[in-house]
Amino acid sequence: MSVLSGVTLILAVLFISIRLVHAIPQLQKRDADFWNVRTYLTEDNSDRGPTPDGGQKYFHEAKFHHHYDGRFAARELLEAERHYTLRLLVKTYLRAMDDLGAETWIMHGTLLGWWWNGHIMPWDTDIDVQVSESGIEHLAGYYNMTVHQFQIPRAPWGEEGSSPDGTTLPHVSGGTVEVASGLGGGLKVPDYKPEMMEEERVQHRRYLLEINPFYKNDSIADKWNVIDGRWIDMSTGLFIDITTLRTNISNPKIMYCKDKHRYLADDIFPLRDSKFEGEPAKIPFAYSQLLQEEYGPLSLIWKMFMGHKFDERVKQWLIDPDWADRVRRNNQRLRLLGATRRRPQTSKPKTALKEPSRFNDG
Ligand SMILES: *[C@@H]1O[C@H](CO)[C@@H](O)[C@H](O)[C@H]1NC(C)=O
Ligand SMILES: *[C@@H]1O[C@H](CO)[C@@H](O)[C@H](O)[C@H]1NC(C)=O
Ligand SMILES: *[C@@H]1O[C@H](CO)[C@@H](O)[C@H](O)[C@H]1NC(C)=O
């Protein structure tokens, strides 16, 4: 071998090994960069302040509220708007997962809402779903960072205080999937100006499916990454947390999520077919046992909760006028007391409005 070809060989080996090192994918510890997924905001509202997680947490939430994604949210929604947005979130999520063939089902407060009337309860602030291990593998492998677009007619909240009921929720159609190609060049979403947000709401909404790369770590010690994926409404920043139900290898009968919830495999599977918010949805097999364990037996009986009464005729949670009246009188009383006692105001005044606790009302 001549000196020259020896040098060439060494150079070639060096080059290849550099390429190899370069090709090893870096585990990105943060959710996708704001500038790559940006819609209409001019700045990222994610909480990037110093965190105790030591940079281990993948998903980040908005500075102003932990139920919003700061890359897409500029503000907190009003109550009626939030309720409406949550319903669209779960409708589109169920539809999309059905289309993509990922096994998912509803849990916790969402399941309780299903039990009563197949809808989100008016006071709920989030949606709980779980996916199977094969479900998350499927989503991570083929659908990470996909954007799903749904046609949605005009929002019904309109006037202040109007509360969208079961009949006014529009039928969502579409479910077009755009694949965010590699993300280097960003999503193919036009630059939105704030005034276009309303337009966006009227015509269609886009949802981003983002999977946490740490879903692969099945240890409950990975406490900063208990959420395995998110279904994010790109026009409001509200999202659904997706958690994987995992098999405990040393005890396959007891399954768990990284958020430390444990379940008997037989309580979840086989899943049952039902409907939620008008969409085909799966629910855990032993739903009533699960609900009673989590919320107590009265949660399936008691018809007064969070200032609402369940009206059997219309099968809906309606605002309880007695409760509203009690709150008003209570506030009045407290105001009077405050006036006579003249306590020095230290911090913020205590809010007088207090919701009755779950089971001692009535
Ligand atoms: C999903 O894509 C984001 C953005 O590219 C990336 O940071 C993340 O690691 C991906 N998740 C998985 C499971 O590969
Ligand atoms: C999972 O996460 C925990 C906590 O961050 C860490 O100690 C552990 O090494 C991780 N396991 C794997 C397989 O990466
Ligand atoms: C898995 O099962 C073992 C044995 O029953 C138990 O000690 C362990 O805590 C379980 N792990 C999880 C994450 O539930």
TrEMBL record:
Residues 335-362 are annotated as: Disordered. Residues 352-362 have a biased composition (Basic and acidic residues). One of its GO terms (cellular component) is membrane. Keywords: Membrane, Signal, Transmembrane, Transmembrane helix. InterPro entries: FKTN/MNN4/W02B3.4-1, LicD/FKTN/FKRP_NTP_transf. GO terms for biological process: glycoprotein metabolic process. Its main location: membrane. This is LicD/FKTN/FKRP nucleotidyltransferase domain-containing protein. It comes from Eremomyces bilateralis CBS 781.70.
